Amino acid sequence: MNGVINNCGMLEELSVKRLRGITEGAASDLIGPGVAAGSLKTICLKELYNGQCFGPLIVGAKNLKTLKLFRCSGDWDRLLEMFAENVRCLVEVHLERLQVSDRGLGAVSNCVGLEILHLVKTPECTNVGLVAIADRCKHLRKLHIDGWKTNRIGDEGLIAIARRCPNLQELVLIGVNPTSLSLGLLAANCQNLERLALCGSETIGDAEISCIAAKCRALRKLCIKGCPVSDHGMEALAGGCPSLVKVKVKKCRGVTSEGANWLRESRGSLAVNLDTGASDIPEDIAGEGGLEENVVEIPPAASQSTAADMVSSSNGRSPLYKVKLGFFAGRNFVASTFRKWSSSNNGTNSIKY
C-alpha cells in the first residue's frame, strides 16, 4: 500500500476492502501520507481489522472531499479529531458500524462545508453529536440516520437540524422515533426537503403523516416502511404535499390495498406502490425506464432480519451460508437503493427512483 501511496501523485480515489495483510501485528507499519495525500479526493475503507493504519494518509489528505468508513474496528474518535484539525474542505462523510461517539461527530462538525452525512448503526452517537453537526454544518443537504432502535437520536437532534440546516433536501430515518414536533419543524424550516424516508419507527403514525402532508409542500418522494400507519394516513396524503409524485408504502399493516388504490385514484398523477410484505424477495429497482424506477426500497434494520428474509438460489446450501448470503445481499441492496437516491439536474444531487 505504501508503494502505491508514495508513487501515485495523481491518485484521486482510494477504496480498500478486506485487506487481510493488515493485522494487529503489522500495526506499526503505518500507511501514508505519501505523495498521494495531496491529490486524494475520496477515501473509502471497508471491513478492515486495523484500518487505523491508514491514519497518516487520512490526516494528511488535506484536499479530501469524501470519507467513507464501513465496519472498521478500533476507536475512531481520536483519528477524526486529528483529521478535522487538518482537513476542512470535507463535503461527504459515511460512518457505518464504527466505534465512534459524539466526540467524533463533534470533530466532523468542524468541517463546516459538510453537505452529506450518513450515520449507520453507530450506537454511541446521540442527539448531542447531531446538535454539534447542526450548529456548524449549515450547508447540510442529505442526512441518513440508522439509529438501530437505540433511541439515542430523536426529536432533540432533529429539531436542531430543522432550525439550523435550511438547505436539507433528503432525510432518511431508519430505526429512529421522531414525533410531529420535529417533523413539523423540519417541514416548516427546510422548505427544500424533497425526499423523505421513514423506516421502522414506532412513532410514525397517522398523525405524523398528516403533519407531513400539511406542511411538506416541496416533498416529491416519500417512503414509509414498517410504521404504524393506516389508511387514514393515506387519506391525509391525498389532500397534502402538492409536489408529491411518488409514494412507497411497505410492511405497514394498517394500510390496505383499498386505501392505496383510493390514494392513487384521488391523485391521478401520483405513483403509489404498496408492498404488504407478503414476499420478502427484494424487487429489482435497477431497471432503466421501467416501472421499477418508481420503487423506493429501504432495508430492515439488522435486528429485524430473520432467516425467512434471506433468499438463496440453491436449496443445497448450508444454513450458515444462507445467513451470510442474505446479510451481504441486503447490504448490496441498500447500496443500490441509495445510489438511486443520488442524482440531480447535473446528475449528482437528487434521488432517482
Automatic annotation (TrEMBL):
- SMART domains under this entry? LRR_CC (SM00367)
Give the Pfam families listed for this entry: DUF7885 (PF25372)
> What's in the GO CC field?
SCF ubiquitin ligase complex
Q: Which residues form a coiled coil?
A: none
Example GO BP: SCF-dependent proteasomal ubiquitin-dependent protein catabolic process
Q: Where is the F-box/LRR-repeat protein 15-like leucin rich repeat domain?
A: 108-268
Specify the superkingdom.
Eukaryota
Q: Which InterPro entries match?
A: FBXL15_LRR, Leu-rich_rpt_Cys-con_subtyp, LRR_dom_sf
Write down what this protein is called.
F-box/LRR-repeat protein 15-like leucin rich repeat domain-containing protein
Recorded source organism is Coptis chinensis
